Amino acid sequence: MAGKLTFTMIKPTAFKNNNSGAILKIIYEAGFIIKAMKLTRLTPAQAGAFYEVHKERPFYASLVEFMSSGPIIAASLEKDNAVEDYRTLIGATNPENAAKGTIRNLYATNLQQNAVHGSDSDENAIVESDYFFSKVEQF
Ligand code: ATP
Ligand code: MG
Fold first, then answer.
1. CATH architecture of 5-137
2. What are the extents of the domains in the chain?
3. 54 noted as active-site residue
4. Ligand 1 within 6 A of 139 CB?
């Protein structure tokens, strides 16, 4: 059965460009409930650990540099079928391929600075939420 939890980050460029409010509006209007949220900034080590699955990829170093370059908003979101529905809402990784009206279509700067992260599995949604939020910070 699909899980109810996913995890997102509003990435540094989208936060810096003051797009957080518009992105959160889209998230609410799609029926997601915010279970936890914070403004924070990843250290290079934290960004590297978060994207460790990509460490052999040529873009890893610049991805880590970008993700630690400024504040982000981290949030855990609840909805039926959360992981899949959120990935539909944000659109394809490359904004050039993101469907019209998706968050990445509307707010990405480029392939790397693509506005938001979304968990890729129920298991990772829990790992990522627990990485950012303690039990008392998840409602
Ligand atoms: P995310 O994990 O951030 O939700 P995703 O699951 O859609 O994104 P991944 O394949 O996990 O895509 O890539 C992680 C992130 O790495 C992308 O969101 C993007 O910021 C960056 N990225 C992916 N491919 C490239 C690339 N070819 N060049 C530069 N950056 C890239
Ligand atoms: Mg991913």
1. 2-Layer Sandwich (3.30)
2. 5-137
3. no
4. no
